[in-house]
Amino acid sequence: MLEILPYTLEQKKRFDDFVLNDSINGTFLQTQNFLEYHPTSRFEDASLLCHNSGIIYAAILGAKIGDEFISHPGTTFGGPIISPSHYTGNRVQDILKTLDNYLSIHYKKAKIRITPAIFSKESPDLLEYTLEHLGYIRKTELSSYTPLNSNEDPLIYCDKECRRIFRKASDFSIEYRDFQSIHDFEIFYEYLKLSKAKYNVAPVHTLEELLELTNKRIPENIRFRGIWHNGIFVAGMMFFIFPETKNIHAQYIATNPDFLNFQPATAIYIYAMREAAKEGFKNISWGISTENQGDFLNLSLLHFKESFGAKHSANVIYTKNF
Questions:
Q1: Is 80 exceeded by the pLDDT of residue 52?
Q2: Which one is the CATH code of 3-135: 3.40.630.30, 1.25.10.10, 3.40.50.620, 1.10.10.10?
Q3: What is the pTM of this model?
């Protein structure tokens, strides 16, 4: 008999072991270790575990906001995270029906974000089909990624204008490297705040949180790269690493406005793609080009990503009122 139970702190190790080592669609982003960088006052955690005789078959990251269950706002997507042994038609139906019944008793609305296909070991189609036929309404955000091949220079995937811009940037003396000092992080963060301020928003993470993630929580899943011209910071990027599916995701980019004459965003994208391809990554993910849960498509942003040979994918959100 399947049973849904709230997650408790004592279950942290089992929860994270399941997500990372015994699931078809779990990543470090769904671990409690990652989520705990948030201050405890920021979210009311409402994560759940699906058990059968003490054996975990599914984990669902979530937070309680008013009378709603939300796939945890502290991460990109929250589940359900499913065991390989239970990723079959009848068992997924059992898990999601049990989850749906639990949510209907405790909440008035649920919003669930599914792990996208490129970050999953198996296709999420079964999860999506089952949720839809349980009465959940599907919405999509448009994301994009560029496929990589270790035997090819990613520059060949880029359009003509992108290649022209990169050749122009290459005329400058550019050093591409990782961040090597606290000063590198600090100057990156100052330019990141400036770039976000143009859209009246702030970075999701504080500088202190980025340093905590880098130095303590997920050092193997995070990296920072930048380009410098004659020792002056030109642009920097933050990446998340997904070794299970050989994907790398561009989370943040920050550029020095004094160097816009050679369009540093294009230069650092190409350098990052080349590095990822040489390391054997299958895809570099550029993230969404939509706002307001997919209602608005930023065509200029999407075109910029398409210039790097980006393919299109959907981030799927399911909602249901009880």
A1: yes
A2: 3.40.630.30
A3: 0.91
